[in-house]
Design goal:
Layout (H helix, E strand, L loop, with lengths): L30 H14 L3 H14 L10
Helix pairs in contact: 1-2
């Protein structure tokens, strides 16, 4: 391996996977919510965290708004 590389001669290109990067977060979910997605994951053969991510991504894509009214 060379001791030095000429960075200017490299062909810089964008990461093709940059749009698909994920960020790890920690959230607290209701037991019922987790159980719901775990049940769906067993029926569909998809990990439950992936299902949660797909559901949230669908909400973002379709610009769904939460409609809450406090009584």
């Amino acid at each position: 391996m060379r001791d030095e590389y000429d960075i200017k001669k490299l062909n810089p290109r964008k990461n093709p996977y940059a749009a698909r990067l994920k960020k790890q977060v920690t959230i607290n979910l209701n037991v019922e919510t987790v159980d719901y997605f775990k049940d769906m994951s067993e029926k569909n053969g998809v990990p439950y965290q992936t299902l949660i991510n797909l559901y949230l991504a669908d909400c973002v894509e379709n610009k769904r708004k939460l409609n809450m009214a406090w009584s």
